[in-house]
Amino acid sequence: MMCKPHLEAIITPCLTSLFPMSTSLSLLSWTRLASGLGMILASGAASASTFDGSTLSLLWGLPFAATLFSIALGPLLAPHFWHHHYGKIAAFWALLFLLPFTYVYGTHTTLASIVHAGLAEYLPFVILLMALFTAAGGICLHGNLHGRPTLNVGILGLGTLLASVIGTTGAAMLLVRPLIRANDNRQHVTHILVFFIFLVANIGGALSPLGDPPLFLGFLKGVDFFWPLTFVWPHMLLMSVLLLGILYVLDLYYFHQREEERPSYMDPSPDTPVRI
Q1: Beta-carbon contacts of residue 43 (< 8 Å; ≥ 6 apart)
Q2: DSSP for 124-169?
Q3: What residues pair up with 261 in beta bridges, in sequence order?
Q4: Rg (CA), the chain
Q5: In whole angstroms, what separates CA 76 from the centre of its chain?
Q6: Which residues contact 47 (CB under 8 A, 6 or more apart)?
Q7: Which residue of 66, 85, 126, 251 lies most exposed, with the fewest beta carbons within 10 A?
Q8: What is the pTM of this model?
Q9: d(CA 17, CA 196)
Q10: 117-140: buried (b, 16+ CB within 10 Å) or exposed (e) per residue?
C-alpha cells in the first residue's frame, strides 16, 4: 500500500502542472488537496487490500476480454459505429463487471477497489507515461538513411533494446519517423511497420517496469525492479531474434523485386546524414 507522503509527492506536481499557480489555489492549497486525496487512498487501499482478487473465477475476466476484442475488432468490422460509440461500448463492458461485482461483494468493496486502482495504480502509470513521452519527445533525429533490409533490421533491433529503457511509447515515437522516411521510396513497407509494432512497441518492453504497463504494476505491488531482466531476457531474446530473422528474409525478398524502389529523383526524402 502506498503511504500518504509518497502519494503527495506524485499528486502535487501533477496538479500544479495542470493548473497554473496564478489561480486562486496556492501551493499550500494544492498540498492540502493532495493530503486529502492521500487519506482517501489510504482508506480505500486498506479496504481493497482485504479483498483477495485471486479468489475470483475466470468468468469475472470476460468483460475485460470483451473490451480487448472490441478494441481489436471494432475498427475493422464496424468502423463507423465504433468511432462514434466506442466510449459507450467501453462503459457497457465496465458496467457488466461492476454491477455484478457490487451485488456480490458490496458497494464499499467496489468503491474501495476503484479508488485503489485509480490512485495507487493508474495515476502513477499515467505520470510515468507522461515522463517517458516527454523525455523521448525531446530527442529529434534529422536526416534520412536508405531503407535496406539490414538497416531496417538494425533500427528495429535498436528500438527493441531502447524500449525497456525509455518505454515502448518513447522508443516507438523516437524511431518510427526515421524508419518511415528511410523506406518512403519503396513499394512494400507495410510488413516493416507490422514488425515494428511487434518488436519495438511490445516485446522490447519486457525487460523492465519502464517498458511494459503490467510489469510496472507488478513493481508497484512489490516485485523487484530487475526481476524481468533476470528471468525474462532469454524468452525476450528468443522472440526478438526469431522475428528479426523473419523480417530480414521477408524484407530481402521484397527489396530484390523489380521496381521495388522508385528512381532517386522521385524519392520524397533523399538520403542525408543523420544527426540528433
Answers
A1: 112, 115
A2: HHHHHHHHHHHHHHT---EEE----HHHHHHHHHHHHHHHHHHHHH
A3: 186
A4: 23
A5: 21
A6: 108, 109, 112, 113, 116
A7: 126
A8: 0.65
A9: 33
A10: eebbbebbeeebeeebeeebeeee
